[in-house]
Amino acid sequence: MKVKLMKIKVLGNGSYGVVHLGKIVTPVYNQIYAVKSINEYYSSFLRKEKEILLKFFGCPNIIQCYGGFTSFEQGQGEVYNMFLEYAPEGSLLDLMNKYGGKIPENDVKCYTQMIFEGLLDVHERVLIHFDLKPG
Ligand SMILES: Nc1ncnc2c1ncn2[C@@H]1O[C@H](COP(=O)(O)OP(=O)(O)OP(=O)(O)O)[C@@H](O)[C@H]1O
Questions:
Q1: Ligand 1 contacts CB of residue 90 (under 6 A)
Q2: Where is the Protein kinase domain (predicted)?
């Protein structure tokens, strides 16, 4: 089945692509996603990110990934896209910027709990990523 995605607006930019608010228009799902995209040629990191996120499918405190696909876009050629659960408040940094650097205390409690529970999910699914060099 051919899926048609409409990119509504840019949500932000990261090291591995631009993130759009996206909506599937065919078939009529009307489902909203965050869609992270990058030129197919540079997509290896984004594909890796997708593989890692898919290991946490079903974890309520980790942004869900629903897979990826390649599209052809005018002026850009082949683009790799990753479907993510849309977080209406954006990232923690977005939230800090919104409140001028000071997130209200009640929200801090709530986000801290989400972060710890998310970390617990990571440990439970036994994904340990060592990024440190010995010595
Ligand atoms: N799932 C999402 N829902 C809503 N907004 C998002 C989502 N993912 C990313 N964004 C927005 O897009 C921006 C870029 O996200 P991205 O994940 O590409 O990079 P990052 O994690 O912020 O930075 P880096 O890739 O450098 O570590 C975020 O700062 C946020 O504003």
A1: yes
A2: 5-135
pTM above 0.90, yes or no: no
Gap from CA of 93 to ligand 1 centroid (Å): 9
**Pocket flag, ligand 1, residue 33 (CB < 6 Å):** no
Instruction: Write out the catalytic residue numbers.
Output: 131
For the segment 64-113, what is each residue's pLDDT rounded down to a tens digit? 999 999 999 889 899 999 999 999 989 989 999 999 988 899 889 999 99
**How far is ligand 1, taken at its centre, from the CA of residue 20, in Å?**
10
Residue 135 is predicted with a pLDDT of 47
40 CA to centre of own chain: 17
If you write DSSP's letter for every residue of 42-78 in order, what string do you get? GTHHHHHHHHHHHTTTT-TTS--EEEEEEEEETTTEE
Q: Where in the sequence of the chain do the CATH 3.30.200.20 domains occur?
A: 1-88
| Assembly ipTM | 0.96
